[in-house]
Amino acid sequence: MLKLIKNFTKKEWILALICLVLVVTQVWLELKMPDYMSEITKLVQTEGSQMKDILVNGGYMLTCALGSLVAAVITGYITSRISSNFSKTIRKKLFNKVEDLAMQEVKQFSTSSLITRTTNDITQIEMLIAMGLQLLIKAPITAIWAITKILNKSWQWSAITAVAVAILMTTIAIIMVIVLPRFKKVQKLIDKLNGVERENLQGIRVVRAFNAEKYSEDKFDKVNNDLTFNQLKNQRLFAILSPVMYLVMNGLSLSIYIIGAILISNSLLIDKLTLFSNMVVFYSYAMQVIMSFLMLVMVFMMLPRAEVSAKRINEVLDAEDKIIEGNIIKGSEVGTVEFKNVSFKYPDAEEYVLENISFKANKGETIAFIGSTGSGKSTLINLIPRFYDVTSGEILVDGINVKDYQKETLNNIIGYVSQKAVIFSGTVKSNIKFGKSNNKISEKDILDAAKIAEAKEFVEKMEDTYNSHISQGGTNISGGQKQRLSIARVVAKDPEIYIFDDSFSALDYKTDAVLRHNLKKNKNDATMLIVAQRIGTIMNADKIMVLDNGKCVGIGTHKELLKNCEVYKEIALSQLSKEELENA
Q1: What is the distance between the terminal CA atoms of the chain, rounded to a whole angstrom?
Q2: Angle of helix 137-150 relative to helix 10-45, nearest 10 degrees?
Q3: What is the mean pLDDT of residues 523-551?
Q4: Each residue of 556-570: pLDDT tens digit?
Q5: pTM for the model
Q6: d(Cα 439, Cα 409) in Å, to the nearest integer?
Q7: In this predicted structure, what is the pLDDT of residue 83?
Q8: ∠ CA(362), CA(365), CA(369), 5° rounding?
Q9: Which H/E stretch holds residue 554?
Q10: What digits encode the pLDDT tens for the residues 539-562?
Q11: How many angstroms separate the CA atoms of 164 and 158, rounded?
Q12: Among 453, 466, 462, which residue's Cα sits nearest to residue 427?
């Protein structure tokens, strides 16, 4: 928790200091009221007292109460502002950290867990800060100040107050020890609940198609019931606090009056008024002490969960980014990609996914990759933008090792279209004008990109054409339309090197062929790396690399591979007839 508090800005520390001053003022005003009450008690008991004096002291009490109220309102406003700004800062840091992490670090945390950490966990800390800056400061100050005022009244009253405080603190300590581990479990169950709900929403069509609603409901109910059961156990423990607190408060009140009655009955007549006045004042201060500890109880009820949430947030913020960027901002060549004896295996895996891959793509060339499922095609091209770093060997882009580039520079050189078309909520235009190159893309660039990607036809049939709304994930357009918009996005960026990770799979053969023709015609000076399953998509590439179990088993043109590579020949014959291949 202290680690996160370090993220307070200078302005927030100043506001916190103002809160401290206001809380001290509030406590001083509240603790002055019993003094005036004591004075009123004496005046009422003393013969010949003036009503004017009683009203004056009553006026002072009212002024103190109003002053305390104003200080409390201002403190509440400031603490709310501090906690809101703090949660905004942490949320931004958490989001930025996840954006910067490499894929292997992101995979340490599930998507549902990262969502929970960015929302629920930060909310827990925000609530603690909002309450803590008021109660956590006020409670100890009130308790210490009140205790100093009552210590000289009577050791018997002081002793019984100390016993009451000890009972309260012991109860709180026992509950904290039991509850803290359970809150860790609760936050993990919230992650799991989010995961199940997210999975169900994403697969809602499959669920309905298989009439699996009951199965999904049972799966959700199990996680929901586990979470409810653990929450109930925690709340039952916290429920013990309420009767204990009331028992201690009422027991202390009764004890003060019983002890006071004994002391007054055994004292001389001249001391009885003083003792009675002291008893009234002591009771007021003792209640202030108990109320201080009750305020602390409220904080302690929130502290265990906030502490767990803080640790979960720090786990992400402290995650080490293993993809360390270099400082080079310009390559020595243009549009080249070279693999030199590249081998790769995933973290903690024993077997290599890729072994000794070597090739070079020159400016303007089209290099294609094909192979059976799991042969390492997508993994290979994902190493170029450094989603992962190579285990051995090196990858050169424009003659420079990718590890030596600044991340922004490398990303500007490369245009990447993922295997699964990713569409963001917004408009057609905002999806094509995406990323940092946003400001450089003109209206003409957008129209040209849509035309090259064969998206122009369906976009211009939409009601608002390029300003038409696109739902989150592109749920209101088809798979082929999503792929064409994804390709249009990278075309508008106009990079030196295009990477297509099986990005034509949802397109029909005609659209596929026309789109690739458009790319070749309009971007003939760009280097293109294409992963594909269809022979028709890659047969005209300058070079085709055939992968099998992570190894290169053939590289050459379509005709060369038909003669020299059995793996390629098998793939080709499974899709096209012998006559079609010979005439291609």
Answers
A1: 66
A2: 30
A3: 85
A4: 888 888 888 888 888
A5: 0.71
A6: 17
A7: 82
A8: 105
A9: strand 551-556
A10: 888 888 888 888 888 888 888 888
A11: 10
A12: 466
Residue 384 structure tokens: 């170029």
Contacts of 345 (CB under 8 A, 6+ apart): 351, 352, 353, 391
CA distance 255 to 157: 8
SS3 at position 394: strand
Cα–Cα distance measured from residue 463 to residue 39, given in angstroms and rounded to the nearest whole number: 80
Inter-residue contact 283 to 295 (CB < 8 Å): no
* Radius of gyration of the chain measured on its C-alpha atoms: 36
Tokens at 364, concatenated: 């303007």
* Short-list 530, 529, 513, 510, CA closest to 521: 513
Given a contact cutoff of 8 angstroms between Cβ atoms, the answer to whether 537 and 576 are in contact is no
Closest by CA to 459, choosing from 476, 472, 441, 434, is: 476
Find tokens 């990713």 and name the residue: 422
The closest of 2, 25, 8, 5 to 75, measured between CA atoms, is 25
pLDDT over 60 at 584, yes or no = no
Three-state secondary structure string covering 403-421: HHECHHHHHHHEEEECCCC
pLDDT digits (tens, 9 = 90+) for 10-48: 777 888 788 888 888 887 887 777 777 767 776 766 666
Residues for the chain: how many in total?
Answer: 584
pLDDT at 436 over 60: no
Query: CA-to-CA distance for 547 and 569, rounded, in angstroms?
Result: 13
How many CB atoms sit inside 10 A of residue 102's CB? 18
Does pLDDT of 291 surpass 80?
A: no
| 37: nearest Cα among 291, 294, 249, 287 | 287
> Rounded CA gap, 329 and 44, in Å?
86
Measured CA angle at 139 (ends 137, 144), to 5 deg: 105
Q: Which amino acid is at 569?
A: K
CA distance 15 to 20: 9
CA neighbours closer than 13 Å in the CB half-sphere of residue 463: 3
φ, ψ (nearest 5 deg) of residue 388 = -135, 160
Question: Hey, is 518 helix, strand or coil?
Answer: helix
Beta-sheet pairing, 426-427 with 469-470:
antiparallel
- In angstroms, the CA 80 to CA 162 distance is 34
Question: Which is it for the CA torsion 547, 551, 553, 555, positive or negative?
Answer: positive
Q: What are phi and psi of 557, to 5 degrees?
A: -80, 170
Q: Transcribe 308-363 into DSSP letters.
A: HHHHHHHHHHT---------B-S-SSSS-EEEEEEEE--TT-SS-SEEEEEEEE-T
